[in-house]
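Structure, all two chains, one model.
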Amino acid sequence: MSKKEISSAVIKRLPRYYRYLGELLEDGIERISSNELSEKMRVTASQIRQDLNNFGGFGQQGYGYNVRYLYDEIAKILGMDKKHNMIIIGAGNLGLAIAKYSNFGKRGFIIKALFDKDESLVGKEVGDITVHSMSELSEFIKNNDIEIAALTIPKGDATRIADEVVTYGIRAIWNFAHTDLRLPEHVTVENVHLSDSLMQLSYNIKWQEKE
Amino acid sequence: MSKKEISSAVIKRLPRYYRYLGELLEDGIERISSNELSEKMRVTASQIRQDLNNFGGFGQQGYGYNVRYLYDEIAKILGMDKKHNMIIIGAGNLGLAIAKYSNFGKRGFIIKALFDKDESLVGKEVGDITVHSMSELSEFIKNNDIEIAALTIPKGDATRIADEVVTYGIRAIWNFAHTDLRLPEHVTVENVHLSDSLMQLSYNIKWQEKE
């Protein structure tokens, strides 16, 4: 299965399918029709059929989809069939909240360490995760096969730190800083711009009032 | 100015324009050409011209855009010209991190209270924000003109709590729970599904390796 066969629009929908299929498994549901899934996900049954056919998960008349099979296939496409080592740079409130959120680990995103420029935090234990000094970044990333760096730092530091960790071999940046990053093509960036999402809320509140 | 005049695609881009124009103001830049802005934002100059013309912010030959004017116009469209009262339901790590993040207040999103079902947390002070009992939700929302409820609670509770606060008059839900909410048309929901965004990272890491 190659990425080329799957449109980026489908890819963007995959985590949601994965989430719903995971909930079905938790509920002990082994198979589901595209109509039932359509009802649950509020997506048309025909879109579901089109999307899921990308994974060879053809529904059969009177049988429906095999939930476990589709779940596992989507996991493979998403690279969720292997573990990803991650560090969090910025041991402030948000960084600590993410470090303490155990569900990421369950999904294969293993947080190996926190880093902070505040030396007074170095050595602090957060669950089984330790806060390290920024001076250890380079060695730690190389020695622990770290793929992902979450940046929970002020925007003023984000660009410089992102450039730095990329030189140490980081492949992906999970950016919570309120700024856009400019990085080489081979580095993937996923932004979580919380203020932008609040602004969308604000916009919707305003114009719903008007209508 | 009515929403109708502006496409939803433009609306989605507004927070990013707002962020860049804000940075220009911080840097004391009063005017900028669409080419300079294009360079900064990595958007084509023609798209910028099309987008910003929605706000009557016509660039003039040899002058460019008036940064302050555009910033203020976009603020109005986004409803950022008025304050929004917000509560956070769920005083766990993420809820506390959001409560402590002062920039939301600077942007007009005023966090009035935290709520938690754990009575042992009730009365706890987080900066100048107090943790309240869930039994106070209804009265607090009504008496404090609360528009937005941020849900930083497990997915198992999210649906029930969302339905509940909507009956108390909440207009917008900022949903951090790892589930989708089904709410009446007049209620706006903005999801921050952190795990979904990690899965996109995982996908990109996997397929960049392959190519």
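Chain A has a mean pLDDT of 91.
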